[in-house]
User: Which sequence fits this backbone?
């Protein structure tokens, strides 16, 4: 006989960026502000944004997990990425000038300034913990998320029990091992006792399901891919309010 999923769950794991928090504005805004702050003309937003995407992809392939395996310091990883972003966008600065720009960018993205927390994030996490569920965060993010950024945003250990961050662990989504590590951190619980919530079919839903976890996806930004997710069999919801309502309705069975 089928029983409600909520009654069987012992843990909920949640993706961070795009699920609990979002970037404020565009990346180009912050790069432009950093350049203007030292008296330089504002770089072209679109070119810098495209340059960043290329540079970030290149760095993630060469030095995954923010340089973890290469024992590359976090600040060196980002300095290389930011420099390449400008170069690919057509901007080359002398070392002293670039250092001034980079320090501002690195400091900004290590603070709460460029991020906002979705209104339903804290209430959902607190609801889950009141239900007696273990709450974990699983994110492709560097160490500053856990130690600085999330606490600065008010997402403290009052809302979550453990975090698995790629820059700290040396494993990143969609590698299923990051989800297995989350199971260990939750107390070596069985995958069928865990629900993962994320915003990507490729790096959240598919790998979590592949090891036997329950999973669903959020489509906060009405993406075109959401229709494909639904057709592929995923439960897709607009926000965490809807997730809570669905779990409390007992319509999800296992």
Assistant:
């Amino acid at each position: 006989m089928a029983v409600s999923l909520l009654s069987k769950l012992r843990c909920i794991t949640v993706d961070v960026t795009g699920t609990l928090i979002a970037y404020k504005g565009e990346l180009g805004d912050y790069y432009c502000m950093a350049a203007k702050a030292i008296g330089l003309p504002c770089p072209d937003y679109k070119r810098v944004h495209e340059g960043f995407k290329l540079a970030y992809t290149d760095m993630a392939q060469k030095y995954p997990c923010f340089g973890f395996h290469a024992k590359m310091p976090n600040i060196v990883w980002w300095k290389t990425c930011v420099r390449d972003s400008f170069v690919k966008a057509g901007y080359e600065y002398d070392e002293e000038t670039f250092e001034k720009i980079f320090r501002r960018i690195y400091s900004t993205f290590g603070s709460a300034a460029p991020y906002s927390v979705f209104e339903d994030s804290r209430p959902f996490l607190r609801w889950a913990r009141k239900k007696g569920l273990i709450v974990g965060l699983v994110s492709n993010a560097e160490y500053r998320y856990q130690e600085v950024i999330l606490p600065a945003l008010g997402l403290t250990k009052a809302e979550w029990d453990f975090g698995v961050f790629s820059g700290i662990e040396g494993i990143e989504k969609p590698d299923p091992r990051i989800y297995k590590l989350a199971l260990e951190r939750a107390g070596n619980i069985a995958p069928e006792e865990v629900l993962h919530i994320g915003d990507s079919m490729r790096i959240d839903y598919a790998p979590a399901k592949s090891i036997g976890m329950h999973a669903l996806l959020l489509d906060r930004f009405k993406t075109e891919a959401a229709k494909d997710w639904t057709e592929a069999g995923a439960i897709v919801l607009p926000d965490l309010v809807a997730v809570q309502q669905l779990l409390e309705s007992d319509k999800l069975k296992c």
